[in-house]
Amino acid sequence: TQLLEQSPQFLSIQEGENLTVYCNSSSVFSSLQWYRQEPGEGPVLLVTVVTGGEVKKLKRLTFQFGDARKDSSLHITAAQPGDTGLYLCAGAGGGGSNYKLTFGKGTLLTVNP
Amino acid sequence: NAGVMQNPRHLVRRRGQEARLRCSPVKGHSHVYWYRQLPEEGLKFMVYLQKENIIDESGMPKERFSAEFPKEGPSILRIQQVVRGDSAAYFCASSPQGDNSPLHFGNGTRLTVT
Questions:
Q1: Cα end-to-end distance, chain A, whole Å
Q2: Rounded to 10 degrees, what is the CA torsion of B11, B15, B16, B22?
Q3: What is the pLDDT of residues B55-85, one digit of tens each?
Q4: Which of A99, A105, A108 should be substituted to probe chain B, the one whose Cβ sees the most B Cβ atoms within 10 Å?
Q5: Average pLDDT value for residue range A37-50
Q6: Which of A5, A67, A88, B107 is the most buried (most CB within 10 A)?
């Protein structure tokens, strides 16, 4: 059974601070996706990383895929209250099927004004 | 452009009743996936369907659960004789292709079994 461990589970910070959340696994994935989920809504895809060592930037968000394609991180610069939400990582390619995503339990981020 | 539409948003059933959850994918998407999110748990894959075909149901309990995606109409996830442990948020996602295509998720159906 493949597992994705996300840390920290909860994070509460002040507006303007920087933060990093982590997604780790002992398994190799063909790609890794990051989603954000608001209360009462479905996950919304932020980014997909495919190549080991890949770095992608989305405004103040920086995503990195580990060289071995087992782990990933999300760094947010100068966090804003609008960044509040549940951040989920999901790995594809486990068990030979690229359509089946393995999700972590998420990091619940609260950015206080 | 409408995204993935799920209904109902909230569903309350008594133990032993049947629950039917509907999902209309993004227009033009022929691949549908169902995931379940239990309290304190991550999203878990249940089933992957294409039009009129079940491709992978390895994540779906063998008993009481079934899914279909007919040629016309929405995809249906059916849970017979519900039990309290079925209480969860059920999310549907769609994609234009299989394999590594980005998933578009609906807002889920929150099932409560009393």
A1: 40
A2: 20
A3: 999 999 999 999 999 999 999 999 999 999 9
A4: A99
A5: 93
A6: A88
Q: Is residue B25 reached through a cis peptide bond, with omega within 30 degrees of 0 on the bond before it?
A: no
Minimal Cβ distance to B100: which of A92, A102, A103? A92
A36 to chain B: which residues are within 8 Å by CB? none
**Which among A87, A86, A99 has a CA at the least distance from the CA of A23?**
A87
| Cβ–Cβ < 8 Å for B19, B8 | no
What is the CB-side half-sphere exposure of residue B51 using CA atoms within 13 A?
Answer: 10
The one-letter amino acid code at B32 reads V
pLDDT in tens, A86-108: 999 999 876 557 778 899 999 99
Q: What percent of chain B has pLDDT over 70?
A: 96
Residue B114 CA to residue B100 CA, distance in Å, equals: 38
- Token readout for B44 is 């878990």
